[in-house]
Amino acid sequence: MHFEPSRNSLAELVEHLNELEWQGQFLLSAQRQEIVKYLMQFYHEENEYLGFKVSAADFTYGARMITGERLHTQLGLNYVLGLEICRQFQLIDGFQVETTELIQAVNQKLLDRCFVRDDCLTGECAHSLLAFWRYLITANWLDGRERIDHYVQLIKAQRDGNGRWNHFPFYYTLMVLFESDTPQADAELAYALPACLRSRDFIALPEPYANRRRALVQQVDKMFSTKQVQCSSLEV
């Protein structure tokens, strides 16, 4: 699978990059530079939200998160897609040769967004907070680790008692917790494990989202046996 720069939908571009990453595709240096330069064309600092231009088609047809949850609002579309692109910049342009000024400008905007500043969970602010959390895992924020620990406690407070969380999309939350790789995040995954196992035979989504969900559930299940982590040993 190769990067297709002819795409003009930000949602399609993000999905394509997510699939490249999910499949573990190796990108040559020239390919990385091509992707970075192409994505930067979507950014103008004066644009609303984080500065990335979301097409009219994206608003009309919507978008899905990498784990298949639909985004229904302009807020969710702009922040989640923008943060996913910034995360890709961190992965692809690790030394930020091309994107330093862009990342700095976006980071400054983020500090004043309610889901970053106030932990707002209203509507798709919760989705945006998770996308920011996922971005933090790759970003070089001075207090990034402290923020991640704080967010784990934030979702812990939103447990619904059935292995899921209020406000937060279940599978995307699982993925962010899995990628966080901390004892506190593991404890939340242990809490969610029964719901994972209950859901794996009832995943009905178009591909590639159904496959991603099944693979994620399998990873969570396998994680505890591989690490020999017993749920009872965690502060679940």
Present the secondary structure layout.
Layout: H1 10-22, H2 29-40, H3 56-61, E1 63-64, E2 70-71, H4 74-92, H5 100-110, H6 114-117, H7 125-138, H8 144-156, H9 170-180, H10 183-199, H11 209-226
Antiparallel strand pairs: 1-2
Name the features:
11 helices, 2% strand, two-stranded antiparallel ribbon, 236 residues, 2 domains, mainly alpha, 58% helix, globular
Task: Walk me through this protein's architecture.
- Helix content is 58%, strand content 2%.
- With 236 residues, it is mostly helical.
- It folds into two domains: 1-141, no CATH class; 159-236, no CATH class.
- It has a two-stranded antiparallel ribbon with strand order 1-2.
- A hairpin with a 5-residue loop joins β1 (63-64) and β2.
- α1 (10-22) crosses α4 (74-92) and α4 (74-92) packs parallel to α7 (125-138).
- The radius of gyration is 18 Å and the shape is globular.
- The termini are far apart.
- The mean pLDDT is 89.
Brief account:
Helix content is 58%, strand content 2%. By secondary structure, the protein is mainly α.
How does the overall form come out from the CA principal axes? globular
The largest pleated sheet is described as: 2 strands, antiparallel
- Alpha plus pi helix count: 11
Tell me the fraction of residues in β-strands, as a range: under 5%
Find the structural class using helix and strand composition: mainly alpha
* Average of the residue pLDDT scores: 89
Helix content: 55-70%
Tally of DSSP β-strands: 2
The number of domains is: 2
Order of strands in the sheet with most strands: 1-2
| SSE sequence, one letter per element | HHHEEHHHHHHHH
Which stretches are low in confidence, meaning pLDDT under 50 for 5 or more residues running? none
Rg estimate, integer Å: 18 Å
CA-to-CA gap between the ends? Answer: 40 Å
